[in-house]
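re: that chain from earlier
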Amino acid sequence: MNILIVGCGRVGSRLIQVLDEMGHDISVLEEVDANKEHLQALEDSNFSGMIQLGSPIDVDMLRQAGIENCEALVAVCPEDNINIMVCQIATEMFHVPCVLARITDPARKKVFTQRFGMHAVCSTNLTVEAILHGISNGPDTRRLTFGSSTVSFLPSEPDVSLLHQPLSEVVAPKGQVVLGVLRATGIMELNTIPSPIIHRGDKIIFASIAD
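^ sequence. v structure.
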């Protein structure tokens, strides 16, 4: 896949490295004199893609970076507004099929995805969610991304009082829903009607929007 990465900071340089190792054709657009250390590290590595220096919101610079031929664009500049503008240009002017922005402000992410219907990842939301689960729930959380939302699935040991009770009796914590029950045998049953009965060794699966 031909991918244009706009921004070569810590996140951008790591993303470039991973995608390059996966065999994708990567082009990079970075502001002049910004992130010199990361750009130099790319040039010193086995990176086979193209690096273009210039303003990420300059249409001519985007053309020189290969936006007209790219199949995906990812904007990971430090400023949310720049990432949003780049993605709007990519979508509205160049009709890039897959466009994604890294946004740090949760409020901006919500507006960006709901008002403009574009894909975004909010690093602040994901970091907070990971820390909270790490503190309180251990390492068993699983995550899936649907569109611009990341959903967390957390298996949790049921309270003794819930044993032999229907799953419908479980009250989910605020912001979560009861998705189903993971049997001791490894089989999962969804929270349907009639409701599954909770047995010893089962785990209740809670789901929540992480981002």
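Residues 131-209 form a domain with the Alpha-Beta Plaits fold (CATH 3.30.70.1450).
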